[in-house]
């Protein structure tokens, strides 16, 4: 099973700031990585797939990068609606599909 | 627009079987490019993939659930279902169904709104 590790667990940031979230895979997953955003009481929402491709309707301030075992999600200028929990998911080698434990973005 | 909706009991007794159904609206579950998945999230915790099924019935499960899981599909009703046997308190979670295979990638989109299942002793 490929273990996905996200860091940090929590990040306190101010609106307008640039933020980078990290996700590490325990094995090479090439570019088989997705990012999701989850707000309280809602289902996760697909942001990024293929490590760097934005899903339909996702604002350009969200960008993903990386390959192999190290990946990042960058939000260029945080908006109030971006404060949420973010999860990475690997799908290069499944089953099982695995998720990271999440990074919570809090308002500073 | 494709919509998925989970349904089933919100309370299950310990040691019994949890049963949920996901109804798919706005598209056919028999479309060949997609799997249909179940994911769960214990309260305050992260996401765990349970398993995925193809319209033909081909299924993949998460080994961590120790073969307690059965996933099935009913193409005539445009639904797929989940059963988890011998539940314990650790099976208490929000259960989501989702389509897997967005643009050919094994990612989940869209998701159902989720349904909370509580296991009681």
Protein traits:
heterodimer, A: about 110 residues, mainly beta, seven-stranded mixed β-sheet, four-stranded antiparallel β-sheet, 11 strands, about 0% helix, globular, B: about 120 residues
What can you see in these coordinates?
The complex is a heterodimer of chains A (108) and B (121). Chain A is mainly β and 108 residues long. Chain A has no helices and 11 strands. Chain A is globular and about 35 Å long. Chain B is mainly β and 121 residues long. In chain B, 0% of the residues lie in helices and 56% in strands. Chain B is built from no helices and 11 strands. In chain B, strands 2, 4, 5, 6, 9, 10 and 11 form a 7-stranded mixed sheet that branches. In chain B, a hairpin with a 4-residue loop joins strand 7 and strand 8 (79-84). In chain B, 40% of the residues are buried. The mean pLDDT of chain B is 95. Classes of the chains: A mainly beta (108), B mainly beta (121). Chain A binds chain B through residues 1, 32, 34, 36, 42-46, 49-50, 55, 87, 89, 91, 94-102, and chain B through 37, 46-49, 51-52, 60-64, 96, 98, 102-103, 105-109, 111-114.
- Mean pLDDT rating of chain B: 95
Protein chains sharing the most extensive interface: A-B, 24 and 25 residues
| % residues in beta strands of chain A | over 45%
Radius of gyration of chain A: 13 Å
- Overall shape of chain B: it is globular
Strand content of chain B: over 45%
Instruction: State the assembly state of the protein chains.
Output: heterodimer
**N-to-C SSE series of chain A?**
EEEEEEEEEEE
Number of helices of chain B: 0
Structure summarized in a few sentences:
The complex is a heterodimer of chains A (108) and B (121). Chain A has 108 residues and is an all-beta fold. Chain A has no helices and eleven strands.
């Amino acid at each position: 099973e490929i273990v996905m590790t996200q860091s940090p667990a929590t990040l306190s940031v101010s609106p307008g700031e640039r933020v980078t979230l990290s996700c590490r895979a325990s094995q090479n997953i090439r570019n088989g990585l997705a990012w999701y955003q989850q707000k309280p009481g809602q289902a996760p929402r697909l942001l990024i797939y293929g490590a760097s491709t934005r899903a339909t309707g996702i604002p350009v301030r969200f960008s993903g990068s990386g390959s192999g075992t190290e990946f990042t999600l960058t939000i260029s200028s945080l908006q109030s609606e971006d404060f949420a929990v973010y999860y990475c998911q690997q799908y290069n080698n499944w089953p099982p599909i695995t998720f990271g434990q999440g990074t919570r973005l809090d308002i500073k | 627009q494709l919509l998925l909706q989970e349904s089933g009991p919100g309370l299950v007794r310990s040691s019994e079987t949890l049963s949920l159904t996901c109804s798919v609206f706005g598209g056919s579950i028999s479309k060949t490019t997609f799997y249909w998945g179940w994911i769960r999230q214990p309260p305050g915790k992260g996401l765990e993939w349970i398993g995925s099924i193809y319209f033909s019935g081909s299924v993949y499960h998460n080994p961590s659930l120790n073969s307690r899981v059965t996933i099935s599909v009913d193409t005539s009703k445009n639904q797929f279902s989940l059963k988890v046997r011998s539940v314990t308190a650790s099976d208490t979670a929000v259960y989501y169904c989702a389509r897997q295979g967005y643009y050919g990638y094994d990612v989940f989109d869209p998701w159902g709104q989720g349904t909370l299942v509580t296991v009681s002793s």
